[in-house]
Amino acid sequence: MERFRDEVGADGAVCVRGGGTRWTLGMSPYVEADEGPEVRVVTAPQGIQKHDPAEMTVMVGAGTALTDLAAALSLHGQEVALEGPPGSTVGGTLAVGHSSVRRPRIGAARDTLLQAECVGADGALFKAGGPTVKNVTGYDLCRLLVGSLGTLALLGRVILRTRPVPEQTIWMTGGLLPSDVLAACYRPAGVLWDGTSTFVRLEGYSSDVRDEAQSLALLGLSGVDGPPSLPMHRDRWRGTLPAGGVLEVSTGVLHRPDPAPAAPVAPAVRALADRVRAGFDPRGRLNPGRDPYLVTA
Amino acid sequence: MGQNGRMAAETDRGTDLLVADLEAAIGSERVAVGGGARRLYSRDSSIIAGGRAGPVCFAESTDDVAACVRVATAHGRAFVARGAGTGLSGGAVPCNEPVVIVTTRMNRILEVDLDRRLAWVEPWVVNLDLTRHLAGSGLHFAPDPSSQQACTIGGNVANNSGGPHCLAYGVTSAHVVALEVVLPDGSVVVLGDELCDATGYDLRGVFVGSEGTFGIATRIAVRLTPDPPAVRTLLLDFMDIADAAETVSAIIAAGVVPAAMEMMDQGVVAAVEPFVGAGYPLDAAAVLIVELDGLPAGVSLEVDLVAEMGRAHGARTVRVAADEEERARIWKGRKNAFGAIAHIKPGYYLHDTVVPRTRLAEVVAEINEAVERLDLIVMHVFHAGDGNLHPLLVFDPREPGVMDRVAAAGEEIVRISLAAGGVLSGEHGIGLEKRRFMPMLFTPADLAAQLRLRRAFDTQGLANPLKILPTSASCGDVMGLGTVPEGVWT
Predict the structure, then answer these.
(1) Which member of B199, B252, B445 has the closest CB to residue A56?
(2) Closest among B476, B282, B258, B479 to B383, alpha carbons compared
(3) Per-residue pLDDT at B210
(4) For residue range A151-191, what is the model confidence (pLDDT) as tens digits?
(5) Min distance B385 CA to chain A CA atoms (Å)
(6) Yes or no: domain B109-226 corresponds to CATH 3.30.465.10
(7) Residue A32: its pLDDT value, please?
(8) Average pLDDT, 10 consecutive residues per value, chain B (490 residues)
(9) Ordered structural domains, chain A, with CATH
């Protein structure tokens, strides 16, 4: 952590790079056009420090690849509720804050972060949250950091909540409407809709998955290898499904082939967000040019 | 009420002007400045006495709340929201004679959308009333603090409340999707999004648990949870609390996350059993309630696994509730534990810390030793599954000097929990009770980060001042005498 702190330093614009899988997300056009200020690129520490299966927690460097973390956790039958494109890191995935399509079952990305050791804009280390799975001690800064695109502080080392890997997982699809699928299952892990077919992910004990799969088969659904491939842009559901779009039914996230602009933000909310950012980074040195309010969903 | 208030001797000129503006804003009949109202709202369910309420306003709408906040801050006066007052850390105790904004009349369930599994409620909707309202729909509101018959959803938001079933379902924050909030500058904003994660910073997420220091929630959108198709409840008893604690860790390590996992020690069992007749064995050192829910086949697998884990770790008996009536009786003992304890001594002080669950047994033993050294009685009833301890100090406040020992015991509990890698609070919040302990867990840099966030929400420092973060200023009396009404504990 000290090395990371020194690398970030107390002066000059700095951005942190993880896997670079969503590098232009929330980026102002001027930065994409390479017209921004000179920005130093730093990387967060890597490595799994401590996995404690009976606590259902893991302490890990933010620069660790998600695949490395998943491999280590799977040795004890556990996982974290973080997912990203190949190459994604823990820190990058938290900074982006997107949840898995399995969110209805495994929870949101933002509920995964229990403690974060960060470098602030003043170049000093600080800690948000705490090491235990339940904690209301002080303000919930971890919630603020997830999805903040590194604009408030840079994640160095984190403690994440882990969960048991389900014994079995299957996908099914069919022409049934999503609402009918939801009514027929108890807490499916994810329900997707592409306008013609509904895809449902069942996970849990083999016996439970088998029982629910049987009821869904009676309604005309059949097994399928996986979900439809998700188009690259994200949006929130606005009442109609665009061509090529896939909706996450329970979470309202719409995956679409073409980008859509972010919804306008109420001025009072924007003013509050600006005060938050200015409070944490008065000189605007952390990930300049990036704005979480430019992210559509 | 306003007229009576004007006769109160203690109102000064500045307060008169404040009261006049409040009356002009929401009507004189809804502003109380009399000693009765101010005394009533000077306390919550914590042991903290000594708060002083300013004018008490009975808000009926978001506009009323916003108007009261604007008037208060225009006069440079602090404000504090008041729900049911069941908080245990002094979060609602008025500091700096604030305008007290009572939300009792904002108690409507505004909208229930069963298809989208969502409800909009006003802040004073009582937690259990929402679930009762949903009876028969197949959905419920998951956070279930033990005070759920009395506490409000607005208060749950302020404290990010938990409860036994938060082990599997998550605390309040995981169930609040959006909030309409009156910010400390009087503006009204919606934080979060009822459909999916809102764009930008998770301001919803930081508002939940901010204990009234970021503004006042006036409408709350909560996620509704499907009722599980199958529920089984087990009662295990142990002759050694360490065996019970090891069973808890073994269950989790085996990949089972029960809906709830609650432990009671012998002291609590002895107090509860005569009342409830839950069938808790009186000679056991600890009883463990494990609730499993989900689809029938998986639940039955888990029942066998938990029973096996219990026996392997020394459980003397493992009882599976045969029917709903037996299950309700097992839970009744747990949920009424605190009321029963009032019969041992007239006063008690309920603590709340979290420790790594693998260290529960040693922490409980250390706490018992430390409290015995102070010649006090301590017993334990807690959320074992997530390591959330609730040591309960039982005492007679009329005994001279006892409050000093109670305070010392509280400090010991905090010290021992932190030394084991724990935190100050799992669900009661910091309020006034624990703010002095914050530097034991956080460095000055950690606290500075929290203060930055607070100042972004509350630029003038008038929203429920002095709570959470340590300052040299004082409010209330942590040593104050206090007993807590039955049924308000979490």
Answers:
(1) B252
(2) B258
(3) 98
(4) 999 999 999 999 999 999 999 999 999 999 999 999 999 99
(5) 10
(6) yes
(7) 62
(8) 42 84 97 92 90 96 98 97 96 96 98 96 98 97 94 98 94 97 98 90 98 98 97 97 96 95 95 90 96 97 98 97 94 84 86 96 97 96 96 92 93 98 97 95 97 97 96 64 36
(9) 2-164 (3.30.465.10), 168-256 (3.30.70)
- Confirm or reject CATH 3.30.70.2740 for domain B341-457, answering yes or no: yes
> Do A189 and A104 contact (CB within 8 A), yes or no?
yes
Contact A134 B252 (CB under 8 A): no
What pLDDT sits at residue A30? 63
* pLDDT for B95: 94
CB contact under 8 A, B197 and A99: yes
Yes or no: domain B230-335 corresponds to CATH 3.90.950.10: no
At residue B437's C-alpha, the angle toward residues B436 and B441, to 5°, is 140
Predicted pLDDT of residue B11: 53
Closest partner residue to A207 (CB to CB) among B210, B228, B301 is B301
Residue A53 phi/psi, 5-degree rounding, is: -60, -35
CA distances from B25 to A99, B65, B74, B96, B445 (A): 44, 10, 13, 22, 41
Domain ranges of chain B: 2-102, 109-226, 230-335, 341-457
The one-character DSSP state at B49 is B
State which residue of chain B sits closest to A118, comparing Cα positions: B446
Which among A78, A132, A293 has the least Cβ separation from residue B387?
A132
Token reading at A225:
């290898």
Cβ <8 Å between A137 and B383:
no
- Helices (runs of H) and strands (runs of E) counted in chain B: 17, 20
A110 chain-B contacts, CB cut-off 8 A: 197, 202, 205
Q: Which CATH class is domain B2-102?
A: alpha beta
Q: Which residue of A has its CA nearest to B171?
A: A134
Contact B469 A138 (CB under 8 A): yes
Q: Do A54 and B253 touch (CB under 8 A)?
A: yes
Whether A209 shows a pLDDT value over 70: the answer reads: yes
3-class SS of residue B485:
coil
The pLDDT value given to residue B407: 92
Which pLDDT score, from 0 to 100, does residue B339 have? 77
B442: which residues sit within 8 A by CB, 6+ positions away? A127, A138, B450
Contacts with A280 from chain B: Cβ below 8 Å: 449, 452-453
The partner residue sitting opposite B201, judged by closest CB among A125, A148, A266, is A148
Partner-chain contact A134 B171, CB within 8 Å? yes
Q: Quick check: helix, strand or coil at residue B340?
A: helix
